[in-house]
Each structure stands twice: as structure tokens, then as C-alpha cells.
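Weekly modeling sync, notes
Attendees: S.R. (lead), two postdocs, one rotation student

Agenda item 3: backlog of single-chain predictions. S.R. asked that every request posted to the team notebook include the full sequence so nobody has to chase files. The rotation student volunteered to paste the first one in as an example of the format we agreed on. Action items at the bottom.

Example entry:
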Amino acid sequence: LKVSTKSLHPNRSGEYIDVSGVLLVPRKTLLTSLKNFRIVVVPPPTYTSNAAAPSVVFQRMSLIGNDSTPNFMYFWILQAQSGFVVFIPDYPGYGDSYGKCFHPYLDSEALVNSTLDLLDTAKKTLSANGYRYKKELIISGYSQGGYVAALLAREIETNSTLGHSVNLLFTGGTPCDLKY
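Predicted structure, as returned to the notebook:
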């Protein structure tokens, strides 16, 4: 499912931009409405073209044939088929916000805020589609995704008003030390 919402513009002008992402859900069954699903939040690795934004990739993706879809996308599809809800945000400047702002590569506030805004929309989308979910999140990311995952986990764990907790965080290849 594609999710879209408004988020503050990364330039801190007070304006809003459209942001988007992808929500992968397990197949609906008779028991779907009885189960609380674990949400896995997966900010993607670094990408530099709009064609690589998760919401754009899933529009043209084929499970048959040899396309240019990043391999990690197939991994997350398998996780959704295994019973997890997987949320993959587009970064500001890509997907629905393409051409409306520059990608804020290491702007922690802009990246975390847009991801949290999209996560709230993803939760509403889940509820509207008959899925229940646990408040404890699994957060994972590699490269820039690891950077965003670590920042997101810190924000969730230090801000109890968000209504989530982090059950598991795993990152790799993250540029967390670039600012220091």
C-alpha cells in the first residue's frame, strides 16, 4: 500500500510538503483481525534518483523477470509474507515530494519528522484496512537508512508522547559519526 501525508518542509519555512512511503502487509485471512502485527520500520539505504524511491520502485516492480529493483525490497516483501507489517518511507525530496525540496541527507530533524508523520499515516492505514498492530517497533536500516533508524529510535525512546517503544534496533554502515 502506498501511504502519503503532509510533513514540514525541510527548509523550516513552516510550509508543508507531500511525503510518501510504502506499507507492506501480510495477506488478509480470517484471523487477520484477531492478530496484533509487529511493525518493522525500514528507512532505505542511500539513493539519489526518484526512480529509486520505495513508492516509485513498487509502482513498477515485477516479481517475475529481471528488473532493476534493489534486492532489499524483495527481502522486505518476504518479511511481510512471514507476518510482519513493513513500513518503508521515501526520503523528503523523493516520491510525492520530488521536485518540492532537496533531499536533506544528514538533516536529522527533517528525516525523523517526515518518517514519524508517515508512520502515523501508516498506522491509520493499517487500522482502516482491518489490521491491528503492536506499539513496540522493530527499526532497521543500512547506510543512510541506518542513520535514520538510529535517530528515529532515539526520538521514540526519549519522547513518550509518540506512543511507541523500540523493541529491536539494528543498523549497519551508518554515517552517524559524519557530523562529529
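Discussion: group reviewed the output briefly. The helical segments are 54-60, 71-81, 108-128, 144-158.
Action items: rotation student to repeat for the remaining queue; S.R. to check formatting next week.
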